[in-house]
Each structure stands twice: as C-alpha cells, then as structure tokens.
Design a protein that fits this description.
Layout (H helix, E strand, L loop, with lengths): L1 H22 L5 H16 L3 H4 L4 H11 L3 H20 L3 H18 L10 H14 L5
Helix pairs in contact: 1-2, 1-5, 1-7, 2-5, 4-6, 5-6
C-alpha cells in the first residue's frame, strides 16, 4: 500500500513537471531543462547533477542500484527525451546528445518501448490524456 501511494505521488509529480515544461511560456529552455532534470532526480532519489553527469552505462548502473520502478520508468524516459529537445532549443546540442544517449541506454537496459518520438509535445499531451483517462501504465 505504501509503495503504491509513493508511486502515485511520484507519477503525479512527473505529470505536473511534464505539463509545466510543455505549457510554461515564461521560462527559458535552460530553466525547463533544469526543472525536468530535478523531476527525474526526485523520482529516482538521486541528485540530478550527479545522475546526469554520468555516461549512459554508468547512469543505467546507478538506476539499477536504486531499483527504478518500471511504472515510473516510462515517465522518466519521456522526461529525459523531452529535456534533450529542450536542450537543443537552448543551443546545448552536446548535452542534448548526451541525454538522448542516456535515455537510449535506459530504454535498452529495461526493455522500455519509448523513443524520442514519444516525447514530442503532441505525443506527450496525448500520452498524459490517455493516462488520465484509463489509468494504464506509463510503458
């Protein structure tokens, strides 16, 4: 019961962070990226500066040590892919490429069928609406 309550709280926080990143007009892309990084860090209980400084394989190892919940994993992945797009928008292409590599490594390690196309604003809006409508898993 406690685990389910915690998971629901984390998912709701992710939904709020994703919606803010999609809808916030008065923030810079760098601020959006920072907010998304913080949301991921909070969800996996790892300092985002540490987590996102790691190479893709090390990041996966860190998540495996922390036992990433699969229900939360789809949201984490979408957030990282979205952050990559936001970083591109901010002109930080090297960091954006690193985020995509990190997300690709997570998807491969956990068998998630989430791609960068699942993190476009349109796809995210549809995904969030569908999650709200039927309460299905994030994968």
């Amino acid at each position: 019961m406690f685990h389910n309550d915690y998971l629901m709280r984390m998912i709701l926080q992710f939904v709020a962070a994703l919606q803010k990143a999609l809808n916030e007009q008065n923030t810079t892309p760098a601020q959006k990226a920072e907010g998304l990084e913080q949301a991921v860090g909070d969800a996996v209980n790892i300092d985002p500066r540490l987590l996102f400084s790691l190479d893709p394989d090390s990041l996966v190892s860190m998540l495996q040590l922390g036992d990433l919940d699969e229900d939360l994993g789809g949201y984490v992945l979408r957030s990282i892919y979205l952050e990559a797009d936001v970083l591109d928008e901010a002109g930080q292409t090297q960091r954006a490429d690193l985020r995509r590599s990190q997300a690709d490594a997570i998807a491969a390690a956990y068998g998630f069928e989430v791609t960068p196309l699942d993190a476009t604003p349109e796809a995210l809006e549809e995904f969030l609406a569908q999650q709200e409508q039927d309460g299905t898993s994030a994968l």
